[in-house]
Structures are given as C-alpha cells and as structure tokens.
What does this fold into?
Amino acid sequence: MAAFLVRRLAINVLVFFLITIAIFALVHKTPGDPIAMQIPADQLNSGSAEFIAQKRHELGLDQSLLMQYWHWLTNALHGDLGYSLLNGRPVTEVLGERIGPTVELMGVGLLISLLVAFPLGILAARRRNSLVDYGATVVSLGSVSIPVFFVALIAIYVFTLKFQWFPSSGISDPTNPGLLDSLHHLVLPAVILGFGNSGPFMRYVRSSMITELGADYVRTANAKGASPRRVVLRHAFRNSLIPVLTVIATNLPQLLAGAVVIEQVFAWPGMGQLAVSSVNQHDYSVIVGFALLIAILVLLSNLLADVLYTVVDPRVRLR
It folds into this structure.
C-alpha cells in the first residue's frame, strides 16, 4: 500500500509539472492584452502605448515565455502564485476568499446527488423492467440531457418569481445574516447542481447492482434464508461500490464545472464566478491559479478512488 502510494504520488508530481507547462503556455498565448484592457478604448493613444510597454516590463510580460514560466514556477514552489494583474492582490488571497463558497456548494450538491442516486439505483436494480425502473431511467436521462443552466432558469422563475420561496442570487442577505439565511440561499443552487450530477451516478449504481444481484453468493445468501434487506445492503450493495466509487471520484472535476455554471446563474461568489471574470479580463495569474487547483483536484480524485478500493473491498490489494 505504502509503495503504491509513493509511486502514484511520484507519477502525479510529474503529470502536475507537465500540466503547469501546458496551462501556462495556453493561457499566455490567448489573444488580448490584460494591460491594454485596463485603458478605456477612447483613451488609447501614443501615450497609452508607452504606458502599456512600461507596465508589461514591470510585470515581466515582455520576457520570453520560458523565462516567465521559470520565474512563476520558482515562486509557486514557495507558495507564491503571483499577483492579480487587475487589482494587484496576491492570487492565493483571491482564490482563498472564493474557495470556501465553492467547496460548500460542491459538497452539498454532491451529497444531494448521492442521496438521489443510491436509493433510485438500488430500487431500479431490484425491480428491473418495472415502472419503478422506468421512472428512475426517466429521472436519470433528464438529469443528463437537460442543461443545468436551463434548469436553474426555470427554478428561478418558479421558486423565486412566482412563489418567492427562495432567493435567486448571492450567498446571504447582508441585512439578515445567519446560518438559516445561508442555508436558504444554498438550497436552490445546491439542489440543481446535485440533480445535474445524480443521473450518471444512478445509472452506474443500477448497472453495478444488477450484476451483483445475479452473482452466486447472492443466490447462496437467499437460499440460506437471509432477508432481502440484508442481501441487498450487506452483500450486493457493498460489492457494487467499487465501480461507483470510481465514477464519483473521477466526476469531482465535472462537479466543479457544473458549479461554475451555477455560480454564474445564481451570482454565487465562488471560484467559478472568479474564473469567468478573470478569463474575460485576461487576468493571467488568477486563471493559471484556478487551472492548477482543478489539476490538483483531478489528480487527487484519481488517487482517492484507488485508495478507497481497499476500504470498500478488502480483497483488493494495491501493489
């Protein structure tokens, strides 16, 4: 186990460095100049050109891409991701302010998706080709097929404009802060995000459970008089978790992608909203920092899936 983790970590470190090279190069090769964008179009003149050249020199943007990457990597290894080109604040500080709301939204959204996927998947597998199975399939297909931004707009129209049950934007009400107010603002975006990711999870739970329910050890347990509840939850469900855990772990980045859309629709002050605004304003440092967090999330998700195999099924040994 320890040797496996060391090897995987070494591979992940190598992959991470390759990702940093690709991200840095792609971001800095995008069209547009972040310095020029800070000057109003009607004020662009010969003096502005000199100002832009001076600012680019101060920020090191006039150096070769290789030198820029080397300086950035050296600082990043010491925990310094640079400064925002727009407001001069440290990138770590900017991301640190936004990561909390995003983690909150993703965590609750993931919990909701699992609370929907596991019961529906198990029921659909136990009652295969029944109305319950067909109903669960419709829910799953709807979750996969309908874009989350469309569901969000419909939800805002129904639950905010028509019935005024939930707020449509923000993380809290400045005039009435508190836990209940925060939960009130969280319900709508988290439920929509969870619904959007529940479909794939439910289909994998159903497929894996059908395979396990047809296994010999399940028939043996039934022949010995074990209760259906014990057979499903104690035997079949646990053994069906390995492929499901893989899907859940590897879909965490996709959950973040869904959070980006939800944050834009509901004006949720998280990392997704920050990333979109940084892309629009060509804030290279913040874009690279955000992309690195996604890369780390992907690598850790894959590693977590491998480790969880041994927890769910002791027969699996990592070598």
